[in-house]
Amino acid sequence: MTLEELISRLTETDDGLTVFASEPWTAQSDAVAVPNREGSCRPDAEGRSYLLETVLIRDVLETWRAHHDGAVPSPQQACAAVIYYAENDTYLHPDEDLPRSTHPEQHPRHPTFTSPRLESSCTAPPV
Questions:
Q1: Which residues pair with 19 in a beta bridge?
Q2: Is 96 within a domain?
Q3: What is the tally of structural domains in the chain?
Q4: Distance (Å, rounded) from C-alpha 64 to C-alpha 81?
Q5: 51, 87 in Cβ contact below 8 A?
Q6: pLDDT tens-digit profile of 22-62?
Q7: Pairing state of beta strands 112-113 and 91-92?
Q8: Which helix (H) or strand (E) holds 4?
Q9: What span, in angstroms and rounded, lies between the C-alpha atoms of 81 and 62?
Q10: Please, what sign has the CA dihedral across residues 48, 53, 56, 58?
Q11: Which of 8, 51, 110, 122 has the CB geometry, 3.0–4.6 Å to 19, for a possible disulfide?
Q12: What's the pLDDT tens digit per position in 7-31?
């Protein structure tokens, strides 16, 4: 399943899951959601990297909707917002969204605004 498909299919009953995706993260990255577990920051057996917990993904999408007058993001917009948040730990600025189907790394600027967020249960392994 692609990351875009996985994000599009998330429901409130998916709390307690962690999303892993192949890097570099794009809408077409191979992705999977698995039950949260201790040490979930480590790549899974297929080498996919930790992206975010589903509760954080829903928070990103709710914030996107709140800053777009309740509009529902397209699958591409949702995926871009989630990837941006995962990479930058901040939300996209509501007035300067990424162009549709453009990965955040390809955008020349990353306009952002800070916002309180739910804390991830993932802690980076010691170096």
A1: 33, 52
A2: yes
A3: 1
A4: 8
A5: no
A6: 999 999 999 999 998 776 678 888 999 999 999 999 999 99
A7: antiparallel
A8: helix 3-9
A9: 11
A10: positive
A11: 51
A12: 999 987 788 899 999 999 999 999 9
120 assigned to some structural domain: no
Q: Which residues of 46-71 are buried (b: 16+ CB within 10 A; e: fewer)?
A: eebbbbbbbbbbbbbbebbeebeeee
127: in domain:
no
Owner of token pair 């739910």: 118
10 Å Cβ neighbour count for 12? 8
SS3 string, 49-105, reads EEEEEHHHHHHHHHHHHHCCCCCCCCHHHHHHHHHHHHHHCCEECCCCCCCCCCCHH
Pairing of the two strands 31-35 and 17-21: antiparallel
Six token digits for residue 61: 């999408």
Q: Which of the four pLDDT bands, split at 50, 70 and 90, describes residue 96?
A: low
Range of the domain at 59: 3-113
> Does residue 94 lie in a domain region?
yes
Nearest to 123 by CA among 14, 18, 38, 17: 38
